[in-house]
Amino acid sequence: MTPPDSRIEVRKTYKLYIGGQFPRSESGHSYVVDDAKGRFVANAALASRKDARDAVQAARAAFGGWSGKTAYNRAQILYRVAEIMEDRRPQFVEAVRQSEGLTPTQAGKALDASIDRLVWYAGWADKITQVTGNANPVAGPFFNLSTPEPTGVVAVVAPQQSSLLGLVSVVAPVVVTGNTAVVLASPGRPLPAVTFSEVLATSDVPGGVVNILTGKHSNTAPTLASHMDVNAIDLTGLAGDSAQAAALEESAADNLKRVLRPPATEPDWTLEPGIGRMTTFLETKTVWHPIGV
Amino acid sequence: MLDRVTSSATIDNKMASAASTQPSAQFADITRNDDTLRRFLHGLPGVDQVGAEARAASLGTRSIKTTAKAWAIDLAIRMVDLTTLEGQDTPGKVRALSAKAMHPDPADSTCPATAAVCVYPDMVGVAKEVLGNSGVNVAAVATAFPSGRAALDIKLADTQDAVQAGADEVDMVIDRGAFLSGRYKQVYDEIVAVREACARPDGSSAHLKVIFETGELQTYDNVRRASWLAMMAGGHFIKTSTGKVQPAATLPVTLVMLEAVRDFREQTGVQIGVKPAGGIRTSKDAIKYLVMVNEIAGDDWLDPDWFRFGASTLLNDLLMQRTKLTTGVYSGPDYFTLD
């Protein structure tokens, strides 16, 4: 007979985050997520190529509304995400600690850095245009203005090691400028990404702006790389796997996707990132406007 | 379940005395006046609403993959009546749409053409000019589309105008006010009159599709009655909706109409086509309809001559799915025209 004070633990099976909803994988499959010491933590959804297709559809549908918001508004929305992450501190610390095998103090530091990174990028929303745009001098009576515009739907292969700081560091620069994202979370350490999706769902980020898929890259990354309705792909999560990265880059060539190649090893995410990740997913639009008399 | 529900002894008796193949002649006794029509139409077995919806839903769960899917998508493209029925239509838009109907996917010459282009009567000439003898028909909506609220002579003039301009098919709307208030004879006579107005000087005639606007008919029983009324009056096709009223085409409504055409052919030998229109936007939806056609009416109806989709956005989704099957890569709306 079970003693009355012991209870059966609820074993969680997390779901995907697509279009502001939390659907199960279309395939019905899930996989076991262990912590850094190999103990069972939870189940996560194993995304299939059809989930990737659905996520692209959701991201495309969200693009018009998100890129049409004022930069100031996007910044406010990302600040709000940072606030909610602060509220969920214990849950994030636990998830990062389990995933990366850190001490609670180290995990807390990783969370601090993640929130700071998000705030840092949010601040860029209404400044990136001033830095990368220009009023060009031309030989005629015209205003000639170059302004950065978001590329569209961006597929992001998130870093494998840094489950939260790395994730925020690759997602924030994509969406802050007005792109929408389909993110493949770290296959071995997906739980901080799942918690992050719960934060997004309860924040003011419109559904579909960020879509998070968990599971093996081999199921979803090739689909996203070859998808004609994806405008760019960030392969950072394939650091060190140059063979797979090359294959994906090849299939991305069909619709001339912008490709951010992975580095040889995963970068140190605690360093200040610079604006390179934002400008990679921006396009420059130049307009000529006659000067009135 | 719902199969073979219509087994009315009355029809069989009337049939025995009718020799002509013209359905309107076979049903002379039934269609004499409002009373005889009401007696017949209200004597049709009622539709089991829960059963019809359950059957439609269960047929929608069939999984159609690989080669069967490729076949279904090509068939669905061939069945599309590519439609533009907006107040803001221009000759340019109709020309573009007609060109698209002939070559839906300019990047792939194996892609079949659609069945027809469906426009307002004043645009028939423009569409005809582009389509010529390509095999793609021009369908015109007539008879004071979409409400059907006009005097009969105006409706007939509207129809004749479309036929003279070169329409191969005429989509008429029934007078829902008359139908719902039980003036069946009036509805019947109008359909007969419009069918006569479809005649061309050379003796041939434009095909007549009869639109019920099932969203306004309230019950499946009414859909079944309207189907029989239109078939007896000599319509070549029965069509669910104008696309201007919600709900437009649904699976259960189409199921009831498919049962009606199946039973009608069993009893008279005359085959009538069915056209769901409005609200069918994805390939998945279209394939559900095709499964239902095969299971309810039979594969004789799996042909553009006997089943059509009234749609505009559906075609692009079919083309994207087709491209996915041929190239193995998901396509996007950037690669297909906006219409």
From TrEMBL, chain A:
Keyword presence, Heme: no
UniProtKB keywords: Oxidoreductase
SUPFAM superfamilies: ALDH-like
Keyword set includes Oxidoreductase: yes
GO molecular function list: oxidoreductase activity
Residue ranges of every copy of the Aldehyde dehydrogenase domain listed in the record: 26-259
Name of the protein in its database record: Aldehyde dehydrogenase family protein
